[in-house]
Backbone:
């Protein structure tokens, strides 16, 4: 919904030009974006939308570079309603959407109801990171572990246990040289200034009410340790992302605060 709102309410040029973001919501969910238009113009809502479009844009910028350098597989871990696969400009790139079985089925129903074609280079693999082996499910889906792969893990890490996070990261770390990963993560409440702690509490209680509580946080130093087996680690906060993607805009779209970060790393 936030990516769809970006297409509708934010000034051009868009940070994430996503012609599928509106159609995938269809008659069931698009009206909510229209109904909540006033709310979507409030500063915190704008900042949340900015962080969501920035993380997808950053992932797709890195993917384009990775493809130019020889990556032939893109794995979306916790794909949600990500639409890259349905507007993939790289015909040689195989895309694997990994998601919790319930979410993946919901997305497939939305794609079908809203007449969005499934490209032949896309494969779905249902996986619950807490209870299933990603490697087994990827293999069953025809994934080739011997070729360089780019993994996007967006909006997922805060919802995982540390064990599920580490086992998935360990699998990524075994990928072919030239592979890479991008993920966003949140800093622990205790690392935030007081006003941001309140914003953190408000978002945390909303996701908890939605049945998916936040449970995993890192400081940048802790994240760097988790990524010890990778090189060329780039860990960006809102000021760097604002400079990269939101500078000179005529609207107020920009990220706020220091809680959310995005990191990429390579093998
Ligand atoms: C906030 S959504 C992010 C979706 C998408 N990556 C994006 O950027 O919009 C979180 C995603 O994580 C997935 N997820 C959360 N816990 C999971 C688990 N244990 N196993 C598999 N997927 C999980 C959810 O199904 C959902 O698709």
Residues:
């Amino acid at each position: 919904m936030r990516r769809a709102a970006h297409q509708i309410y934010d000034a051009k040029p868009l940070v994430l030009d996503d012609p599928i973001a509106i159609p995938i919501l269809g008659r069931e969910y698009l009206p909510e974006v229209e109904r909540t238009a006033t709310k979507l113009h409030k500063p915190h809502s704008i900042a949340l939308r900015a962080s969501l479009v920035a993380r997808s844009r950053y992932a797709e910028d890195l993917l384009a570079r990775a493809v130019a350098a020889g990556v032939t597989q893109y794995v979306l871990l916790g794909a949600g309603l990500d639409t890259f696969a349905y507007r993939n400009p790289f015909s040689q790139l195989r895309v694997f959407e990994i998601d919790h079985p319930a979410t993946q089925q919901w997305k497939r129903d939305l794609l079908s109801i809203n007449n969005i074609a499934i490209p032949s280079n896309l494969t779905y693999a249902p996986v619950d990171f807490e209870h299933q082996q990603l490697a087994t499910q990827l293999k069953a889906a025809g994934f080739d572990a011997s070729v360089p792969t780019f993994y996007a893990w967006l909006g997922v890490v805060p919802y995982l246990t540390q064990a599920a996070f580490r086992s998935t990261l360990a699998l990524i770390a075994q990928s072919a040289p030239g592979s890479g990963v991008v993920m966003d993560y949140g800093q622990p409440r205790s690392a935030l200034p007081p006003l941001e702690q309140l914003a953190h509490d408000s978002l945390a209680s909303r996701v908890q009410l939605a049945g998916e509580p936040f449970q995993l946080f890192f400081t940048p130093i802790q994240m760097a340790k988790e990524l010890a087996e990778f090189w060329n680690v780039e860990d960006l906060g809102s000021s760097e992302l604002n400079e990269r993607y939101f500078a000179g805009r005529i609207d107020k779209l920009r990220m706020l605060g220091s809680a959310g970060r995005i990191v990429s790393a390579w093998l």
Remarks:
- The CA atoms of residues 30 and 239 lie 31 Å apart.
- The mean pLDDT is 94.
